[in-house]
Structure formats: structure tokens, C-alpha cells
Amino acid sequence: MIDSMTIASSGIDFAMIWAGLIAFAVLAYIILDGFDLGIGILFPFIKSKTDQETAMNSVAPIWDGNETWLVLGGGGLFAVFPLAYAVIMPALYMPIILMLLGLIFRGVAFEFHWRTKNSQDWWDRGFFLGSLVATLCQGIALGALVQGITVADRAYAGGWWDWLTPFSITTGIALAVGYVLLGAAWLNMKTTGELQKQSVQFAKIAAWLTLFFIGIISLWMVFIEQQYLHRWFDAPNVYYLMVVPVAVVFCGFKLLYGLHRGRETSPFMYAIGLFVLSYIGILISFYPNLVPPSITIWQAAAPDDSLKFLLVGAAALLPIIIGYTSYAYWVFRGKVKANEAYH
Q: Region 293-298: what's the mean pLDDT?
């Protein structure tokens, strides 16, 4: 009742606006950093040293800028939804810390690959390991959030290992497979020759596995929490929400068809489409909760005055981030050729 009265009196739902902005930032991070993490996971399976370096050079100008969205999403959650931050962090300390360590190690290994020759193989293993650990931990954290966080008196009330379950491990593996799909589709779009041929084969395998995991996790979710079951299968929801799984099947078909026909750009776009649709499915399942199953967007939000003040800064900052990100991708567009090093 208080939430609806506050919204009615101001006329603007600032909490919902901020929920949308943070959701956008997280999705942007997943897509943009997803394909370079996927390249890190694929790295040991790329046959030649030259092709490995070409793969690294395809993301070298943009990979660190992609992580801006992670900072925006995490910082925004802390500033705008302090209750959600205070509940989620204690519940997910271990996977989040391991994720950050993986991202740091991945970044260090990426740079040291080009600066040392004697220990280059070790840093290449670090590039793979950091990418894999970061990805698995992101997926595990997502799975732990989907399965719900125990809350009592506005604080986390669960155990230290609640985040580690068969479901969260499955989501971790699924995200790793999905990132491999993005990375392989990116290399198919950005490279030529033998590396492109390898990338197409990687993408075909990862596409089938990604679709498999989307189906398994979607079915599993509805048995985890009654809210998800009713949201998707109660009438009239079931009639208009079915467009999401239908769109997933369509994207999967177009992705595989594009790979089979030798397309370069469309498989990457349809791979992104699978991630977007999966993300939309999660948002539909969560709404109106920010922390399932009990903390809503409005309960977790800071006071309206704080939201208004921060929104002014976001209105100035977001166009700058989108602008320089778009400019970087535009400048470094086109194919990356072997021995044409960015570093």
C-alpha cells in the first residue's frame, strides 16, 4: 500500500526506472564481456599460436571497456537498492569474490601474454583459467539468486554454502557454454582462414548445448519456486508469455542455419538474441521481486529523493558510456588479420 501511494503521489516510479537501468547494465555486461570471456575459455582449443593471438587481438581494443557495465550494475545496485545489495552480497560472497579474482587474473594474464616470452604458456593458461572461473562463478551466482535467498528481518538468514547446489552448478556450466557460443560466433565474424573454420565448428557444438541448457534450466526453474510456475503457466499469462520460448526456438534455428550456410554476422546476432530472450525470461519470472522470493523492487529501493538525485548523474553518464563503447566498436570494426597485432 505504501509503495503504490508513493508512486501515485510523485507520478513517477523512480524505483522501476532504476530497476530498468540496472537490468540494462547487467545485460550489456553479459553480452559484451561474454564473448571475450568465451574466447578465453576457447583459448586452449585453438590450434595454432598465431590463431590464438589473432583471437586475443580481436578483443584487445574493447575487452576492458566492456567491464564498465559490471561496475555500473554493481555500483548502481549498492547506491539505488541498498537492501538488495545488503542481502545479496552475504549470500553470494564466495562466488562473487572468486568471480572478481578470475576477472583480475584474466586481465593480468591478457597483458602479460604480450610482455613475456619465457613464461607466456603459463600466462595463457591463466587467461583460460581466469575466464573459466569468472564465468562459472557468474552462472553459479545467477543460479543461487534464481533459487531464492533466505531473508529474515531484512537480512540474509541462510547458510554459507546455500549458493552451492546442483541447480547453481548447472547454471554455471550453462553460462560457460553460452559464453563459448558468443566467443565462437564473434571469432566467426571477426576472423578468416583456419581460425574462422574452427570457430564455426565450436559455435555449432556450443549452439546445440546452449539450447539444451536453456530448455533444462527453464523446466527446472518452475519446480524450484511456485511463483515461477504460476507466472508462466497460469491463464492468461501462458497465452502471451509463450512468445518467449517460441522466439528462443526461432533464434536457435536461425543461428544454426546461419552457421551451416556460412553466414558471418547473423550467427553472432542470433546468439545475442538467445541471451536477450533468456534474460527476459528471468526478469519475467522475478517480477516484481528484486531478491526472490520476498523482497520487491520498491522494498529494496532507496528513498525517492536519492533516486532522483542519482538519476541526474545517470542521465549524463549513460550516454557517455554508450557513446564511447559504440565508437570503440566502430573504430575497430572489420576483420582481424593474423600478425596484425593491436598490442
A: 89
> Is 146 within 8 Å of 282 (Cβ atoms)?
yes
Taking CB atoms within 8 Å and a gap of at least 24, the contacts of 309-312 are 310/18, 310/79, 310/80, 311/14, 311/17, 311/18
Domain count along the chain: 1
Q: How confident is the model at residue 230 (pLDDT cuts 50, 70, 90)?
A: confident
**Residue 109 covered by a domain:** yes
User: Is the pTM for the entire model greater than 0.90?
Assistant: yes
Cα separation, 100 vs 260, whole angstroms? 37
Residue 1 lies in a domain: no
In a domain, 2, yes or no: no
Residue 10's pLDDT band (cuts 50, 70, 90): low
pLDDT for 41-89, tens place per residue?
Answer: 999 999 888 888 898 888 888 887 788 888 888 888 888 999 999 999 9
Sign of the C-alpha dihedral computed for residues 132, 326, 273 and 336 taken in this order: negative
Where helices occur in the chain by DSSP H, the ranges are 2-10, 14-42, 49-59, 63-66, 68-80, 82-91, 93-113, 120-146, 166-190, 193-224, 226-233, 237-241, 243-260, 266-286, 297-300, 304-331
| Three state DSSP letters for 154-178 | CEECCCCCCCCCHHHHHHHHHHHHH
Give tens-digit pLDDT for 153-196: 888 888 889 899 999 999 999 999 999 999 999 999 999 889 99
Q: Which amino acid is at 227?
A: Q
Cα separation, 212 vs 335, whole angstroms: 31
Whether residue 338 lies inside any domain: the answer is: no
164: left (phi over 0), alpha (psi -120 to 50) or beta: beta
Residues 291-320: b if buried by 16+ CB within 10 A, e if exposed: bbbebbbbbbbbebeebeebeeebeeeeee
CATH code of the domain covering residue 288: 1.20.1630
| The one-letter amino acid at 118 | N
Give the pLDDT band of residue 342 (cuts 50, 70, 90). Answer: low
- Domain span including residue 318: 14-331
